[in-house]
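Listing S7. Sequence submitted for prediction.
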Amino acid sequence: MLAPLRVPLATALYALIGILLARYWYDGVHWPTWTTLGVAAALAFCAAPTARSQITRRPLLAMRIFETYSWINGLLAAVAACATVLVTVKLAAAGGDDDPLKELVTQASAALTTLIGGIVVATKDVDETLGKRIAKEFQAKFTVQGQEQEGKVTLERDSAALLAVFTKYENGWTDWSEDTRAARIKSLEDNLVTDRV
């Protein structure tokens, strides 16, 4: 029921967080903005290496970590919205009450904040891109028996784990979209110990 509202609600949430961060900034409380930016940066730098290290041991955890990129984008959108509001207020204050530039800057700020949030959320909403990235990460960690490669976990031919990672049509898995990805990775995790060579 709420699925069609997912993108607009997420955009509004990130914009609201940005406005709250700007309010705190103007009240002289800078740490929430810096903390949000720091958390987003730390997640951006640590999420992929951490997830990669878990693929062959805890595939479901690895998948969930890769999926945190939507939160990272959201936090960055909130900081960008905050910066937009800060610049707008600074320019509007410099312009005075009767300055047409003030209205222009206010409207441009609102449009830019919405655009930033919309772009980030629309990017997040395109699950196909995330699915392809996760598929590539998982496929880089496994190989089939008879084609062993150093640094990759070898799986038995026609095993459930191998099919979960590499198949295009088994079990109705035609892609790596959110639901399919969860089923694939669950199958991989359930069969990894027995299917490993």
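Caption to Listing S7: primary sequence and predicted structure tokens for the chain studied. The CA atoms of residues 164 and 183 lie 8 Å apart. The chain has two domains: 3-125, 131-195.
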